[in-house]
Known about the structure:
With about 80 residues, this protein is an all-alpha fold. It contains 4 helices and no strands.
Amino acid sequence: xxxxxxxxxxxxxxxxxxxxxxxxxxxxxxxxxxxxxxxxxxxxxxxxxxxxxxxxxxxxxxxxxxxxxxxxxxxxxxxxxxxxx
Length: 85
């Protein structure tokens, strides 16, 4: 059963989020719902200690560059640099 939720968010952020959702072929409600699911699932998994000790040790060891690009764009750039330069 779905319920309505009212949020107060900066107008620019809302517009960017709507554009992102449209580019993904999804609704903004779906994007927010999936994000909230992932956050709540992560918390449950962490509390259950389901991670292998090696994974816990490695967590946070990789730092992505500060960029407004998403993962797919960063991967694409890296592949272009590797194979075309």
